[in-house]
Amino acid sequence: MLKVFRPEKLMFAFKNYVKLHMGQYYVESQPTTMESIYKDTDNLTPLIFILSTGADPTEALYKFAKESNMLERLGTISLGQGQTEKALTLIDDSAKNGDWVLLQNCHLSQEFMPHLERAVLGLPDVDGM
């Protein structure tokens, strides 16, 4: 009923339902830092941010890279038209060298996403890129 008559209230209803049945902890944003996130990664576990509107961890990532003496080894590429091959090369080179990669605007390149999935899973790329 809520979805039909008041669709804009649906997310609030979900939040209230989770709070009621699971507790406040599960509906609150938990404070975090790049340092604590980084501790959960390793050379086989990439860090992938799925962002909501208005969220941008780029500045925090650059600051953390600088503090970790990795700023010079952080490759950044903004996805879009014609960037797939460059991005895959950057990922491959960085994986071999232990460098970091920041892929921005992945949503702008639907062509790239299957390649990224295969790269993250460690599978060979079917298109030869």
What topology emerges from the helices and strands here?
Elements: H1 2-5, H2 10-22, H3 34-38, H4 58-67, E1 74-78, H5 84-97, E2 100-104, H6 113-121
Parallel strand pairs: 1-2
What's a quick, concise take on this entry?
With 129 residues, the chain is mostly helical. 43% of the residues lie in helices and 8% in strands.
State the main characteristics.
129 residues; mainly alpha; 2 domains; two-stranded parallel ribbon; 6 helices; 2 strands; 8% strand; globular
Walkthrough of the structure:
- There is one protein chain.
- The chain is mainly alpha-helical.
- It folds into two domains: 1-30, no CATH class; 33-121, no CATH class.
- 43% of the residues lie in helices and 8% in strands.
- It has six helices and two strands; from the N terminus they run ααααβαβα.
- The protein has helices spanning 2-5, 10-22, 34-38, 58-67, 84-97, 113-121; strands at 74-78, 100-104.
- A two-stranded parallel ribbon has the order 1-2.
- α5 links the parallel β1 (74-78) and β2 (100-104).
- 5% of the residues are buried.
- The model has no long low-confidence stretch (mean pLDDT 86).
In percent, how helical is the residue content?
40-55%
Shape: globular
Give the total of beta strands.
2
Poorly predicted parts: none
Mean model confidence by pLDDT: 86
Oligomeric state: single chain
**How many independent structural domains?**
2
Our Rg estimate from Cα atoms comes to: 19 Å
Distance between the termini: 49 Å
Structural class: mainly alpha
Strand content: 5-15%
Strand and helix order: HHHHEHEH
User: Count of helical segments?
Assistant: 6
Summarize the main sheet.
Answer: 2 strands, parallel
Strand arrangement, largest sheet? 1-2
